[in-house]
Amino acid sequence: MASTLPSHNKIVFLISAFHSCIANSRRLENFMDALNDSSAVSLLNEIYNSTFDYGIFTIDLEGRVTTWNVGAERIIGFSQAEIIGQNHSVIFTPEDRRRDEPGQEMQIVQATGRAEDYRWHLRKDGSRFWADGVLTAVRDDSGRHTGYLKILRDITDRKQAESEVHRVANSDMLTGLANRYAFETHAIELIAIAARSGQSLGLHLIDLDRFKQVNDSLGHHAGDVVLQQAAQRMRKVLRDSDFIARLGGDEFVVLQPNMSSMQAGADLATRLIAVLTDTFVVDGREVSIGGSIGIAVCPDDACDLDQLMKKADLALYRAKADGKGRYHYFTEQLDRTAHARSREIVELRRAVQKKEFWVEYQPQVAFSNGQTVGLEALLRCSNPFFSSWPVEDVVNLAIEAGLMKNLSFWVLREACEQMRKWKDDGISDMKMCVNLCSQDLTDRATPDYIEALIAETRLQPGDLEIELTERQALDIEKHGLEVLHALRSRGMSIALDDFGTGYSALSHLRNLPVTAVKLDKSFLIGIPGDVQGCTVVRAVMDLSRALGLEVVAEGVETADQAAFLKEYDCTSLQGFLVSHPLRAEDMTTWLFDGGKTVH
Predict the structure, then answer these.
(1) Does domain 172-344 fall into CATH 3.30.70.270?
(2) CATH (one of 3.90.1150.30, 3.30.450.20, 3.40.190.80, 3.40.980.10) for 8-158
(3) Is the pLDDT reported for residue 36 higher than 60?
(4) What burial letters (b/e) apply to 245-261, b meaning 16+ CB within 10 Å?
(5) DSSP assignment, residue 599?
(6) Which of 132, 391, 434, 582 has the most CB within a 10 Å radius?
(7) pLDDT tens, 374-400?
(8) Where exactly are the structural domains of the chain?
(9) Contact 165/148 with Cβ under 8 angstroms?
């Protein structure tokens, strides 16, 4: 890209800013700001070719590496030929990938302009190194966001040396955790980062419940053992980037940087309370304590450590006053929101355990002969707590709580067993359509599980069609293509549901091994009276035919819509015009009555 030569003063500033990063990581900000100036492009090329101490690379909007400097090759081990085109998540640890830390960093940049990185990373050989760095947006001359620029450095040696020198001064000798001095030093740094970047920092002030009784009844040695065990338990449920310290006595504190939501803070507090509630064993005797937690958030509640501690202490007081063994946020609204979400997840877990769900079926009818060619299995919830919830919201909560895999496999089994019953009753020549979630379709065990279920229920692979929503497609393209190809190779068909609601619908058709698309019902609004809408629907069907794909139109409610779709060779339709979703027994009656045909 052409650019004007930077002025002498700007070159001096850029070089000075870059080299001073070595001594002071906060100077990275100035350097990154300068790089966003298009006049510095030529200098950036020089830096790429000569900088060995810093890894500098760019990624596109999907996270794929597009450039890679010699410093990145030296530090991380991948050559340009090996890394270009790979997703940059390959340098993140498995635990950070599971939490989608790479994606969250990019989201933070989109929202705030930059994300600061201070974590373990992986080298090509699998070894870990500690790095700090900055991710910023890359924009073209018109200001359009085209990718990201990452600068990081390996600070492992420095960190290990500093850790050894400061270990005694900064450690609590009893538990091995950081002490109050180390906490205050670290907290001030994280608060400054949070205040500057807008990223939330959660401060969890933790007090052990009933600890005084342990000291009084069993002695101080027993109390010390409990403190040591409590420290070990809490440390195990934290991320690498979280920070825990013992302030003194039975009081601990956890710093949770990059807290993505109030629910993330609530989830961590819940885990901490759970490990403190489990029974402790001291010299062969069982001891029960527990813990209460007060949470304050920077920058929402305060950007000063003293104020943040005071507000966390007020929240802790409230948690103890409410009966101990619980957490509270300082801010009333955040507290209500977090507790409400926690209660919703608890209720959903209870519903899953009790199997308070049922399956309804909605038919798909072929335009060619008016016969039922498929049935979509649809999840429904009977738990009273969710009686007013749209089923889509229940599904979204299940995904958030990590419960969707259990639910979708339960629906799959129910649907296959019901399909077997219909075949035994003489109803055949139709397929069962079941929606699976991203977690299912990125699990390599899924094809074997489904194949075993098909064999158990004496079905054929062609009897089953797996549906995935377009919103899930991006994640599946990255991590689940192997699973989808395995399902196709075993004879199952695959449909892309809600087609047209995402931003990359056409790329999904190119990249995923789908056999059908389900046109989202939103496309049928105003059809056939809406000329523009008709043009879009015709284009989708023309494209699908060219790719050899079937088209199922969802949400068809009127005869005029059906006539329009039939005229343009839509394969089949699904919607209230044919039938509402029905329970298995009602769908059996519907099928034996011949169903409804489309003329």
Answers:
(1) yes
(2) 3.30.450.20
(3) no
(4) bbbeebbbbbbbbbbbe
(5) -
(6) 434
(7) 999 999 999 999 988 998 899 888 887
(8) 8-158, 172-344, 355-590
(9) no
